[in-house]
Every structure is written in C-alpha cells, then in structure tokens.
Specification:
By secondary structure, the chain is of the alpha/beta class. Helix content is 27%, strand content 23%. Strand 4, helix 3 and strand 5 (101-103) form a beta-alpha-beta unit.
C-alpha cells in the first residue's frame, strides 16, 4: 500500500477494527512515504521525525501533510531486516499511537546516506544526517519489540505456501483483536 492509498483504504472499510502493519524484511524505502503513513494519526503539520545533519542544510523536520484518520488499534510486525524508513514508521507509530511492536529487534539504521560520485567512476556512500524523534535525542540501536516472538527467517514465506505457520503474525492478530475488543466504538 502506498502512503497516498492509506486514507482511501481505511475509508473503504467502515467496519475496520484494527490494522496490522507488516514491516518484516522491509529494508526501508522512501522516507516521505513512511512519514505520511505514520502521520495519518497526527494533525497536519506535526513533525514525525527530525533529521539532524552536521551542516544545517542537512537538518529538517519531516512533517505530516495528510489529514488525520479515524482511530483504530495498530500493531506493527518487525524483525532484524526492518531498517531505515521502515524503522522510522514503526518508531513513530509506537511513539505517537502506542502501537505495539511484535517480532524481533530491528536492524537499527537511524541515518541518512548520500551517494557521492568520484572521479574515474568510483562512488562513496556517506552518512550525512541522523534521525531523532521531534525534540528528542538521536536514535541509536535496534527497535525492541514489546512482544518478542522469534521464528525462522523463512517462516512467513513457508506459511504463505501452506507449509507451516507464521507465529509472529498469529501473535499480532491476537494482540490486534484484544486491542479492538478493549476499544469501544
């Protein structure tokens, strides 16, 4: 689902009681898209994450630009391959929405890199900024799940093929169901 599709996807389901966001294996992607998805629970203009660079030109606040959506419980699945923008999204939902994190610790990549092309065709990937919650300290280390559920790396794929179970997803469903039941409509 793209960031732009989230509001319409939720609006199309008036009976929606909860959301499970599976960020396992997501190595990142577009930071603005992660901010937009996280921001669906914030007021327009609210900062989701701040980028702090050595140079002031590399510093900025990534803010919400989409309208706030109806409040439903959210549970986020993470693992050791959840990194970068996916961690920003998981962290923001956890911090702002109190969305529980389920799975195993994330990768812990809280930096912004830029590719610089060098003479003779070489290139260098350089960290130009670090990320922090609005007004907070720079993030370091992996996100720790609220509910630790270990499983083999290929368990999700095997479960999709009908050759096993995805215990992390099963636990996330149990948790989302309990949160939806506890939250009156």
């Amino acid at each position: 689902v793209t960031a732009a599709a989230v509001p319409s996807a939720i609006a199309a389901r008036p009976d929606l009681r909860g959301v499970i966001l599976d960020l396992r294996g997501c190595a990142g992607g577009n930071l603005q898209a992660a901010v937009e998805i996280a921001a669906v629970r914030l007021t327009v203009g609210a900062a989701v994450i701040e980028q702090v660079g050595r140079e002031p030109a590399r510093s900025r606040a990534w803010s919400a630009t989409v309208a706030r959506l109806p409040d439903v419980p959210v549970v986020v699945l993470i693992d050791g391959a959840t990194a970068s923008s996916a961690e920003v999204l998981a962290h923001a939902l956890h911090r702002v929405r109190r969305a529980p994190l389920v799975g195993t610790p994330s990768l812990g990549k809280w930096s912004v890199q830029q590719l610089f092309l060098l003479p003779r065709g070489d290139a260098m990937l350089l960290t130009v900024a670090h990320l922090r919650p609005p007004g907070g300290t720079v993030l370091a280390g992996p996100l720790q799940p609220d509910v630790v559920v270990a499983q083999e790396l290929d368990a999700t794929w095997r479960s999709w093929a009908g050759a096993g179970s995805d215990v992390q997803l099963a636990r996330a469903i149990e948790l989302a169901t309990a949160l939806a039941i506890a939250k009156p409509r």
